[in-house]
Every structure is written in C-alpha cells, then in structure tokens.
Amino acid sequence: MIPSPSPSTVRLVAGVACLALAAPVLVGCFPTTRQPAPVPEELAWTIEQSTPTDVTTQLDAAGAVSAVIPVSGGTLTATGADGTSYTLTIPADALRVATEVTLTPVASTTGLPFGETASYGVDIGPDGTELDAFATIQIVPATPIPGDQQVLYQYRGSGDDLAFALPTPDATGISISTDHFSGYGTAATAPNVVQEEYRLGGDAARAIMSELAHRIQTHTQPRADGSRPPIDPDDLQPFLDLFRDYVLEPRIAHATDSCAAGVLAARTYGEFQRHLALLGMSPQPDGRLPGLVTTMAKTCIDQEYSYCRDEHLTYRILPLYVAMIRAVAVAGDVDPSVDEELRAKVVDCLSFRLDFTSEAVVEGDSGWASAVEASVDLTFDLDGIDAKTGSWKPQFREASTELVNTSVSAEQAGWSGCTATATPSDGEFFFYGMELLASGYDAMAVESGPQRVGRLDDVRLRFGTTVAGGDWQVTCPDYPFQPPAISGIWYVTFLGAHADDLIADQSQGGIEFTGWEPGAPGNATIATREWTATGDRVHETGTLTLVHTPR
Question: How far is it, in rounded angstroms, from Cα 307 to Cα 452?
C-alpha cells in the first residue's frame, strides 16, 4: 500500500472524486428521501434550459503575467494598460498540483447586457482549472466605481455563457470568490437595476448560482468604506434548495452511469458544500460522499485502463490515479480494497518492453566493428520513494538484462607482420528510469476530445551498460612488446560517441536520452529513438524502441 497522503496532499474537494462500493451498497447509498422543494414562481426560469449570453473580449497580452503557484498557494497581480490592477489570491490546498497560472487583463469587453458602461476584466488560465477551495480576485479599477454601481460577472472561455460572479463575503473593495479559472470582471452598473431580460446562465446549475450571486450583490451593496453588509441566509435558502434538488440530487442519482457522470456528481457535491461554508451556512454532509467517491474512482480507473489497453494512452492513468486516491483519502470510511483494485489497474497499464540495438565501427587500420542488442521488460512501482526527499514517488522499477554481442570483427593492425583479432563478449544492460513527457490533456477530462487524448511529446530515459561488445587484440610475433588488449570495443566506441549524454549527477549514473519520435496514435510502439554518431573514422548507430505491453 502507498503511504497515506498528508492532509495538504489529499485535501480533496469532494469535487474530484467518484467511484463506488459494491453495486448493492450504492443503490441504497446515493438516493435521498428528501422531496424536492417547490420552485418559486419568480425562479422557475432557472431550472429551464435557456440560451446563454455570450460576450466578446479582447485581451491585453502585453499586461499578462505568469507564475508557478504551488499547492501551498500564492498571489499573482497583473496591471492593465489603463492602470487597473487584478490580484489573484489562491489559498493553500486549492490547487491539486503546482500549476503555472496566468493573469491577462481584458482590454475591452463588448456585448455585456448592462447597457453602455465601463468594465474591467481579467482572464485567468489555465481556463477551466478546478479549485478545491475558493480563490479571490481583487479588482482595483483605474477609475473608482461607487459601491452601489458595481456589477460582478464571470464567463467561460473567451466570453461564453455570461453569469453573475460571487462577491467575497466580508471583503473590502471589489472582490470576487471563485472555485475555478475563467474570465471575471466588474461593470459600472447598479445591480439592483438589472432587469428580467438580463437573466444569465444557460443550464440550471449555472443559472441558479448566477442568480444567487446576483441576489447577494443586490442585497449586500458595499458601504461607504467598501465593506459589504452581512449575508441573510434566509434570503439565499430558496436558491440553495433549487440547486440541491434540481442539480445536485439528479447528478448523484446518475453518478454510476459513467466516469463523466461520477466526476460531475462529486464535483457538484463539493461545489455545494463549499458555497454553504463560504456563505456562513453549515455544510450539510449526509454520509454519501464515501460511496460517491468510491464509485467515481473505480469507474474512472476502469475506463482509463480500457483506453490504456486499447488505445495505448499510457500517460494519463497515473495523474488520474493520484487524483482518485486523494479523493478517497479525504472522503474517509472507504474499504481499503478499493485502493488495491485501483493500483492493480495502474500497474497493469504501465507495462512496457524496451528494445536496444547499436553497432559501432572504427574504420581503417587497427579498426573494428561490433554490434549489440538487449530487450528488457519495464514495470511500474507504485510504492516508490524519492531517495532525496523520502516522499512517495511513483516510478518505473530499475531493471537489467543481458546485453548480447551479436557480431564482432577486427581489421588487421596495419603493422608489418601483425594481426588483429576480436573475441565476442556479452555484458549487461541497465534500465534506471523513465518519464513519459505528455501535454495537451487533462486526466480528469473523461469525455472524448483533444483533452482526453492529449499527446506524447517526448520520453526521458536513463540507462547504462557494462563493458561489452568484444575484446580486441593485436599480435605481432616479431615485436618484443605486444600492444595492450582493448576490452569491450563496442562499449568504448559507444561511450565516446555519447559523452555529451552522460548524466552529470554521477550518483544516478548512466546516459540520459530525450528527443524521441512518438509513435502513431493507437500504436503499441510508443516512441522510437534513433541516432547516428559520426567522427574521425568512427561511426555508431543505434535504436531504442519503447513498446507498450499492457497486461
């Protein structure tokens, strides 16, 4: 079993998890006996599908700033060309992994349904990144906006599906709370004059939360000092009831349908609980989270294993597994056999064979030619520990195999009466470690599309060998002193040809190769590394081939 993740490592958001206990348990675990709350007539529109309102944005790329924010959190500030500042504050354990975050001021926004008004916006990327805790966006416009004329908004992508944004309770100034990255801004229009035709949000989930944010903006307009009055929980309860009964519960009821359905249900559960806490209302845990998370984890890993086995998508399953075990750890009360089941799928997926061939030739007098080959099976170690930090580090197990000298020959020494001979000699090939360098995918993107597939960009492989490839000997009967023998003529040539590839940290040893050519999508040949090293009289060519062999 892997070590239990630390609280900061496992803080999940009941929003990333989802796989189940045994099916009979699930059937009784997910349903609720609660009857849906009546829909207030004035809010009936929120649970009906409507056409989203889109806007058009033009970004101020020159004002963009980026920084890698660790899991422990951080702050990033960008300033627009007009002098407006935007500060993003991410608390500890909101990000699941260290992430390069980018703030880009918005130069202009057109299509806002608030009339002709000034607006100040910022784009936060990577777009769509889910957070496990609320971050805040502080906006300080170059031209101050009176407290009773501040409308806070958000949108997806580059301007899709406009909605009202959630003010940060107890904050001074213009501050928005968010649990995901997208676009945010403020417009100089009194929120209490936004009329019925400005209903925002395309689906029920977004429409209800948008109208909830609008109600908070309207009823907690900033005071003269910029602070907001307290929120009245009774005023917000109808929105929370609608969200729970017409969004959360239906999603939970379908959580076992697929990985995507389970992820959506778990994320929605987390979103609901986070909003309750942010608004100063008691969260409403109901004991269903462990079953919901377990269902998600098993369903998603099973599905990802199928992609790995059938489509050879080998680089997605480990980050997905890490997300799942964090979710399971936070949910608590989960059968330990769940992790064992997930681990088995990951290890069965991450199985490879590495083939190595090389031929080294030294031309002319006193030359030689020697070829070697090796093939080694690679397995994944989910119990791996980083030797430097002592922390958990999943990695491929070190392995070794025979390095076979397939051919060897020697040219004559070139000295009168002397001869050269070469005797075959085998050695050992050592595999030290490997990383699959991929991009363009999201491990939690369980639907079809580019983010589910992504791409393999390169491979980082560390390997080494013993002295091998034949022993070369010159014999000169008429000379009193014989030239010394050279052992491992292939090894000597190969090492000289790849001096620049030697790993600088000798505690690791060996040679590191990058610059691989990824195989065609869906092909078991994951990547190939071919090379030709040529020097004065010396030629060395070789190939490394990484083949996926799922169990």
Answer: 10
